[in-house]
């Protein structure tokens, strides 16, 4: 099985990082190589441009791919199936026009020109509106085109909004919300290796923002502690073997909580009688 992943650009590093955290360590993958092996002899990685990845998967160069949803839609790769939202590379494709111009809505673009790196997504968007502007494809610096009379509006990526603002452009309408996805070719989605990869990546995402709390609780205090724990599916409670030091009747309580609940939970369980509280990170969480 081969996974196509971005070879450069902003998606490269976070993708490699995710594979590593999922236990799919890369081997023999010196920088600038086309392929890398992983610790799993059945899984290798193919490096490609973010925009080419959906096509690589559709055409059979790889079985799985990781890239932005915007690229999957642009490639119109209808033989690939999404397996997982990887929850990074969040951005929006928006229709934007000069702030001080006369384009306030989609209908104002009838007979006008829209420049974009995403001509297919743009045409699909306008097809649904009944407005049919002229769409011109550019390969970068799209934000410049309305200022050089090349276009009346653009469809481009925005996340913080800084680039649009810098170019005196305002959002007219959202075209697409995107994030990075794991997908596979239709004919291999049920393959056990594909599902293994999906589970491994999913376990990293599930663990993100979660912490593991361990504490000691006197038996008679268990209910009180349990009541203040916001845990995932309730805590795990274990007997602590009597160590002969009067620790009899102590229980070990383990629970997974949201990182943002950790501070309050510690305060609450302490009040309820817990001691020896330990907080650790979670690498993976297989549900
Ligand atoms: N500003 C942004 N914020 C969040 N995600 C973004 C942003 N810009 C792009 N992306 C996502 O990253 C994907 C690839 O963009 P990126 O800029 O890394 O590649 P690229 O422009 O093709 O790189 P290069 O031109 O170096 O090959 C986009 O398709 C989109 O899904
Ligand atoms: O809303 P913002 O946070 O300003 O982000 C939007 C910008 O980010 C991307 O460009 P990128 O930085 O990838 O440069 P590129 O044009 O070289 O791909 C995108 O093409 C926008 O220009
Ligand atoms: Mg870019």
UniProtKB/TrEMBL annotation:
Domain called ATP phosphoribosyltransferase catalytic: residue spans: 49-201
Coiled-coil residue spans: none
Regulation: Feedback inhibited by histidine.
GO BP terms: L-histidine biosynthetic process
EC number from the UniProt entry: 2.4.2.17
Pathway connected to this protein: Amino-acid biosynthesis; L-histidine biosynthesis; L-histidine from 5-phospho-alpha-D-ribose 1-diphosphate: step 1/9
Gene designation: hisG
Every Histidine biosynthesis HisG C-terminal domain range: 207-284
UniProt keyword annotation of Transmembrane helix present: no
Listed GO MF terms: ATP binding; ATP phosphoribosyltransferase activity; magnesium ion binding
Localization, UniProt: Cytoplasm
Main location: cytoplasm
InterPro entries in the record: ATP-PRT_HisG_long (IPR020621), ATP_PRibTrfase_cat (IPR013820), ATP_PRibTrfase_HisG (IPR001348), HisG_C (IPR013115), N-reg_PII-like_a/b (IPR011322), N-reg_PII/ATP_PRibTrfase_C (IPR015867)
Entries under PANTHER family matching the protein: ATP PHOSPHORIBOSYLTRANSFERASE (PTHR21403:SF10), ATP PHOSPHORIBOSYLTRANSFERASE ATP-PRTASE (PTHR21403)
Cleavable signal peptide: none
Listed name of the protein: ATP phosphoribosyltransferase
Keyword Ubl conjugation: no
Cofactor(s) this protein cannot do without: Mg(2+)
């Amino acid at each position: 099985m081969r996974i196509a992943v971005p070879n450069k650009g902003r998606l490269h590093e976070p993708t490699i990082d995710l594979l590593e955290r999922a236990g799919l360590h890369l081997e023999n993958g010196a920088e600038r190589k086309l392929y890398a092996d992983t610790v799993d002899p059945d899984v290798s990685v193919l490096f490609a441009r973010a925009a080419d990845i959906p096509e690589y998967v559709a055409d059979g160069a790889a079985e799985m791919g990781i890239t932005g949803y915007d690229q999957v839609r642009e490639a119109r790769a209808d033989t690939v199936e999404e397996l997982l939202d990887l929850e990074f590379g969040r951005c929006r494709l928006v229709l934007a026009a000069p702030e001080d111009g006369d384009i306030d809505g989609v209908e104002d673009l009838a007979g006008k020109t829209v420049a974009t790196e995403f001509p297919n997504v743009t045409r699909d968007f306008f097809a649904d509106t009944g407005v049919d502007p002229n769409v011109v494809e550019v390969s970068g610096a799209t934000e410049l085109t309305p200022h050089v009379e090349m276009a009346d509006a653009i469809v481009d990526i925005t996340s913080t909004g800084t680039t649009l603002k810098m170019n005196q452009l305002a959002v007219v309408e959202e075209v697409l919300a995107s994030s990075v996805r794991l997908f596979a070719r239709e004919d291999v989605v049920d393959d056990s290796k594909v599902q293994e990869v999906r589970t491994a990546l999913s376990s990293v995402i599930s663990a993100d923002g979660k912490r593991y709390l361990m504490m000691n609780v006197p038996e008679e205090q268990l209910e009180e502690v349990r009541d203040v724990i916001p845990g995932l599916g309730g805590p795990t409670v274990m007997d602590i073997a009597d160590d002969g030091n009067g620790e009899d009747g102590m229980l070990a309580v383990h629970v997974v909580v949201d990182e943002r609940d950790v501070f309050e939970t510690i305060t609450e369980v302490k009040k309820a009688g817990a001691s020896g509280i330990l907080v650790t990170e979670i690498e993976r969480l297989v549900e």
